[in-house]
Backbone:
């Protein structure tokens, strides 16, 4: 390998000397492998823009892809020369390079043409608008772009990010971005992961998911999105995780949700969805987590064949204004660990068969209009502890025979009166 690189470099040097061709890359030699000189200078300048002028890469890291690697920088070889492929800035690890409070994105960053992954963690603290220029330089190779925990990044995402059509992962998590999403985001059809959570984005979710056949994770939670959920969400047939929680979304859930047959997590909590539960939910039989709490949906649960959703581990339909009885189909969910039915308008008896669920560890039925006797065993109460809550059901009572001694009274559910 070393002999082949030496021969290649010798021929390049000889060819440049004979032809006067100045377009050939200048080379920086190391004991391991050469690095394109312009690439190294661009790397040093780009990093210096983030960590401060006092940082001198040529002295500290004379061989950044070889014997003296820089934390957060990875390289690969192209035509026997080293080029930067991954760049992570910010204190991701203890020995990572910290970003300066007066950082700048220098044009040299966009000269790293072989860059495949670029991430910023807790770098942008002071208010700063992300520049529009330069991003198209990464269009050919960049497949991962991340901005995590950068409160100083404000205003809108640049429209030019839509040029990164080979991007497979876009993570914009817990920054200060606001405004509507750029229309160009609809061009990123190679994405497998789109996480835009924890910002201040507003407006409607773009109705442009047709063609996003590779998308596995869509997380738009903890923003201020409004309007209805677009019907094109049904085109995300590969989707595994959909998290739209903590927004201001409204209207009825689209029928197209039922097309997401591979979905394992659906989290829509703390929105303004209405119109009752759709029986299309039962078509998503791969779901392990279904969280719809804190939505004024109303309606009843009995219209859904819950027994079809055998993979459910978490079901939270609390604080939704649900009416009617607790459906017996829930007693067939053998993998269920968490069941939240609290703070609704549920009536009727509590199915004692819920105790037989082998994995149940949390059951909340408090804040309803349930009636009759709680027919759970002392062993069930011992297992559940305070993870079983039934208070604020005026017509619900606890049979006397479950109480064996004064020392066991703490096992009984709080706030439930004894049966008379």
Residues:
């Amino acid at each position: 390998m070393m002999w082949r690189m030496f021969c290649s470099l010798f021929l390049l040097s000889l060819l440049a000397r004979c032809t006067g061709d100045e377009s050939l890359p200048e080379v920086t030699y190391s004991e391991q492998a050469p690095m394109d000189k312009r690439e190294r200078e661009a790397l040093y300048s780009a990093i210096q823009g983030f960590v401060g002028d006092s940082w001198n890469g040529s002295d500290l890291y004379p061989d950044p892809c070889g014997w003296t690697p820089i934390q957060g920088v990875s390289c690969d070889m192209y035509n026997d020369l080293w080029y930067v492929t991954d760049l992570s800035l910010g204190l991701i690890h203890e020995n990572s390079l910290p970003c300066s409070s007066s950082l700048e994105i220098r044009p040299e960053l966009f000269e790293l043409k072989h860059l495949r992954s670029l991430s910023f963690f807790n770098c942008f603290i002071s208010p700063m608008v992300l520049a529009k220029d330069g991003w198209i330089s990464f269009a050919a190779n960049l497949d991962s772009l991340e901005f995590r925990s950068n409160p100083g990044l404000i205003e809108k995402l640049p429209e030019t990010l839509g040029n990164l059509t080979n991007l497979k992962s876009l993570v914009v998590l817990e920054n200060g971005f606001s405004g509507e999403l750029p229309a160009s985001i609809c061009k990123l059809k190679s994405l497998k992961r789109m996480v835009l959570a924890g910002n201040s984005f507003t407006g409607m979710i773009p109705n442009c998911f047709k063609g996003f056949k590779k998308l596995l994770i869509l997380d738009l939670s903890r923003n201020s999105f409004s309007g209805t959920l677009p019907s094109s969400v049904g085109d995300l047939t590969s989707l595994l995780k959909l998290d739209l929680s903590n927004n201001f979304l409204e209207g009825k859930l689209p029928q197209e949700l039922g097309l997401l047959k591979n979905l394992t997590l659906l989290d829509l909590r703390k929105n303004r969805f209405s119109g009752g539960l759709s029986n299309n939910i039962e078509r998503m039989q791969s779901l392990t987590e279904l969280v719809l709490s804190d939505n004024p949906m109303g309606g009843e649960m009995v219209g859904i064949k819950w027994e079809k959703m055998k993979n459910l581990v978490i079901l939270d339909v609390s604080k939704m204004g649900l009416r009617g009885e607790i459906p017996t189909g829930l007693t067939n969910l053998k993998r269920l660990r968490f069941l939240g039915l609290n703070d609704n308008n549920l009536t009727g008896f509590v199915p004692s068969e819920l105790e037989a669920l082998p994995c149940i560890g949390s059951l909340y039925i408090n804040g309803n209009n349930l009636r009759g006797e709680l027919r759970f065993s002392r062993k069930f109460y011992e297992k559940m502890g305070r993870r079983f809550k039934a208070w604020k059901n005026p017509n619900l009572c606890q049979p006397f025979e479950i109480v064996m001694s004064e020392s066991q009274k703490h096992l009984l559910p709080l706030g439930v009166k004894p049966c008379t």
About this structure: The radius of gyration is 29 Å. The chain has one domain: 77-418. The first helix runs from residue 2 to 19. DSSP finds four helices and 26 strands in the chain.
